[in-house]
Design a protein that fits this description.
12 strands, single chain, ten-stranded mixed beta sheet, two-stranded parallel sheet, elongated, alpha+beta, 12 helices
Length: about 325
């Protein structure tokens, strides 16, 4: 698609994601991965980040929250409006989409791999975010801050998608379905020009991302975005599959490679382009962690490594 076509598609079918993307870019926010020092070391050394199946993560219950909200909203008056708008362009298509979605639902739950990031604000550059250190820092936390462009790569066949999380109740999901229904009606000529098969795939993905990226409003302070891969649906040149042991559980993971591939249109993903800074969280040995990360950054050929590492001075008690 041309950039204008991509913009119109997002405006009609993914209005929340479209609004949030524009907001992030306009405000110059970056993204951050809160983790422990060991994982940060492996990310830099191996130039990759692991994506885990939703069925093995703490976020699995959140996927069920997304499904419950979507299912109830689709059966509401808002869902009726959406089905009417879709069928006005392609008679009977709404039933096809539901059948297609239901057929894929077990795979969406078991064969979807995600990595969770958070929006990073400028005022967090030195110290990070206290609530995230508490939740994810452990005994030696590190925040890996990445540049914005990495989440908005546009390359054919990349097979990996970035989506903001919506901290919504069922009623808010209903409101979003109404908004999409209205935009389909307002842009019916455009939607009709897409073709039946293409529109079916777009609406299917709209439902899929709604399921995967709707969380309870109580988590809103995380400002989360999710990197999503579904290998049975979309192969990707930047993913490799492997088996790793995580918290004593052997499991399949998808490894997102930090490397440019100009021939495939993938640029800005190599570690020197991607990495904005590292923030060392509260821990017993911040200088030791700093020295180790500086060394591994230099080995990864990241320039000016010293200027990328900051030590947070948030006085947070270290878990024992």
């Amino acid at each position: 698609m041309t950039p204008m076509e991509e913009h119109q598609l997002r405006h009609v079918f993914f209005p929340y994601a479209d609004d949030r993307s524009k907001e992030v870019i306009a405000q110059g926010h970056r993204f951050v991965y809160y983790t422990n020092a060991e994982t940060a070391y492996r990310i830099i050394r191996n130039r990759e980040i692991w994506m885990r199946s939703t069925s093995t993560m703490n976020d699995y219950s959140e996927v069920e929250h997304g499904f419950a909200c979507l299912n109830a909203a689709y059966k509401s008056e808002s869902g009726t409006m959406l089905r009417g708008a879709i069928d006005a362009c392609y008679p009977g298509l709404s039933e096809e989409v539901v059948a297609h979605f239901n057929a894929w639902l077990p795979g969406i739950r078991s064969d979807t791999y995600i990595t969770c990031l958070s929006e990073h604000l400028s005022e967090e550059d030195r110290n990070g975010r206290l609530s995230m250190w508490r939740a994810y820092g452990g005994k030696a936390g590190v925040a890996v801050v990445i540049n914005t462009a990495a989440l908005f790569l546009q390359a054919d066949g990349i097979g990996v998608f970035a989506s903001p999380v919506a901290y919504w109740t069922q009623e808010q999901v209903e409101a979003e379905l109404r908004r999409v229904a209205e935009r389909i009606r307002e842009n019916s000529q455009y939607v009709s020009s897409l073709g039946r098969e293409t529109t079916r795939g777009i609406v299917f993905n709209m439902f899929r991302f709604a399921l995967l990226c709707t969380k309870h409003p109580g988590f809103a302070e995380e400002r989360e975005w999710r990197i999503i891969a579904s290998p049975p649906m979309h192969s990707s040149p930047i993913l490799t599959q492997g088996v790793e042991v995580i918290r004593e559980i052997p499991q399949n993971v998808q490894k997102l490679q930090f490397a440019n591939n100009p021939e495939a249109g993938i640029v800005g993903l190599a570690l020197p382009d991607l990495l904005n800074r590292l923030i060392i969280g509260p821990c017993d040995y911040p200088v030791v962690v700093l020295q180790a990360l500086r060394q591994v950054l230099q080995e990864a050929e990241v320039p000016q490594a010293d200027g990328l590492i900051y030590v947070s001075d948030i006085p947070l008690p270290i878990p024992q």
